[in-house]
Amino acid sequence: MVDQKKRSVILIGMPGVGKSTLGVLLAKELGLEFVDTDLYIQTREGKTLQEIMDASGYLALREVEALVLQELSFASPKVVATGGSAVYSPEGMAHLAQNGCVVYLSLTLDALRGRIHNYEQRGIARAPGQSFESLMEERTALYKRYADIEIDCQGQSPQQSLISIIEQLNGLAS
Q: Residue 100 domain-assigned?
């Protein structure tokens, strides 16, 4: 088995799926640094994701996200929770995939709707008027394209999903 502590783990998936929550738990479990690219963007830009979109549009947010993904240093391994729209940047995803294992966290549309109560104000990079269902359909194909492994988080606690991720990572290494 390859030592997972020597390799980064990249979490992708829809907003509300639990990338940030599971990222913190996984980083703690593996003893790695944790980076949340949404927080990184907000710190870098001095604005919330929604403020960036309100000022410049959703494509501007995707551009900033693409730059941030490519700027990420992997001098030491880390767990990275990406923004839900990271998969729109082929260059950014190539950089992430080159430096770690890409883990797609999935949930059903109904489960995600139950978790997202502020869709209009959450800073989700989407076309004006685009429904959550349409956005999920559009992104799911991209998540699947870039994923090394997929974790179905449906009906699982964060701890159960964490165990699933670690088991799958260990399975890849053996």
A: yes
CATH of the domain at 124: 3.40.50.300
Rounded to whole angstroms, the Cα distance separating 65 from 79 reads: 17
Q: Residue 171 annotated as binding?
A: no
The answer to whether 152 is annotated as binding is no
For 51, residues 6+ apart whose C-beta sits below 8 A from its C-beta are 123
Question: Per-residue pLDDT tens for 121-158?
Answer: 555 777 778 888 898 999 999 999 999 999 999 999 99
Is 122 annotated as contributing to ligand binding? yes
Specify if 56 maps to a domain: yes
Q: Is 16 annotated as a binding residue?
A: yes
CA angle 25, 22, 145 (to 5 degrees): 135
Confirm or deny that 62 is annotated as ligand binding.
Answer: yes
pTM score above 0.90: yes
100 marked ligand binding residue: no
Residue 43 is labelled as binding a ligand: no
